[in-house]
Design brief:
It contains eight helices and 13 strands. The protein has 281 residues and is α+β, with helices and mostly antiparallel strands. Helix 4 crosses helix 6.
């Protein structure tokens, strides 16, 4: 059976050079996976709450689904003292400098390992042999994809659930699979403020399709909506990075405006976005 260190060709005597990073989001477990898809994982990993990178290398494993971890690369920790950083929302931490090594790069975003993580630590040493479960170094290979996972793979309207940063990346890079899919539908969409949980229901009708409507949001976060514009005015332009976008209902391009508007009103009533959300009408 092929395991982690077999595939990545890491010898046992070198285990002490590595820290393993089980990259998983706090509120959304797939956050680091989504960040990987927009080529921002290296920067995300370099921003740490504590001084976690005390060894020469980081072996990155990114949460994909329950007990399945995707290989994200092996990074060298550069001999630069980490600097303290603080976000606009008050988060504080440390910024490291790393570089992606050329070791096993052909398996980045392609190799997936099966491992039931029964300990809390997100940054264990490679030689760790936990009391519960198998040793980290011996986690078995689950499967290898023919090609690297990519945001270019549009997985269907029911699967759309992207944050503002991802939307901006998709629109600015004009990713064809997303543009083709969203340029040929009208419908009802949902924007969620992940900081407060408040929701905004919107619609694309008339000459607009969802691609065109969402392209407007990608520019500034509010897309001209009075409610969202006021929210960003109050909290600052960077507040748009709290927004997530999904599709509630897909409508045929030939359906009239009145029907789509009625469906938009239906969803506002279902989700109570006039009373408790971000819709004012």
């Amino acid at each position: 059976m092929i395991n982690l260190c077999n595939l990545l060709q890491i010898e046992k005597e070198d285990f002490t050079k590595y820290k393993v990073h089980f990259a998983i989001g706090r509120d959304n477990r797939k956050e680091p996976y989504n960040i990987f898809l927009i080529d921002d994982f290296k920067d995300w990993q370099e921003r740490q709450t504590g001084k976690n990178w005390s060894r020469e290398y980081i072996l990155s494993l990114i949460y994909y689904e329950k007990d399945i971890w995707m290989f994200g690369g092996i990074y060298k920790v550069l001999p630069v003292v980490p600097v303290p950083i603080q976000n606009n929302d008050g988060w504080t931490g440390w910024k490291y400098e790393t570089e992606l090594t050329d070791k096993a790069t052909e398996y980045i975003g392609r190799a997936f390992f099966r491992f039931k993580k029964e300990f809390r630590a997100s940054y264990p040493t490679l030689e760790l042999d936990p009391k519960n479960g198998d040793p980290i170094a011996e986690m078995p290979l689950s499967h290898i994809l023919d090609k690297r996972v990519a945001l270019t793979d549009f997985l269907g309207f029911d699967s759309v659930n992207i944050d503002y940063k991802t939307l901006k990346y998709i629109v600015s890079d004009n990713i064809l699979s997303w543009k083709s899919a969203l340029s040929n539908i009208k419908g009802i969409y949902l924007i969620v403020d992940t900081h407060t949980g408040k929701q905004y229901v919107g619609s694309a009708y008339g000459d607009d399709c969802i691609w065109q409507r969402w392209s407007n949001y990608a520019k500034d976060g509010h897309g001209g909506n009075v409610e969202l514009k006021e929210l960003l005015k109050t909290n600052g332009a960077d507040y748009k990075y709290n927004f997530k976008f999904s599709i509630l209902e897909v409508c045929n391009m030939n359906l009239g405006n009145e029907y789509i508007i009625s469906r938009e009103s239906h969803w506002k009533e279902v989700l109570l976005t006039r009373q408790f959300g971000l819709n004012s009408n």
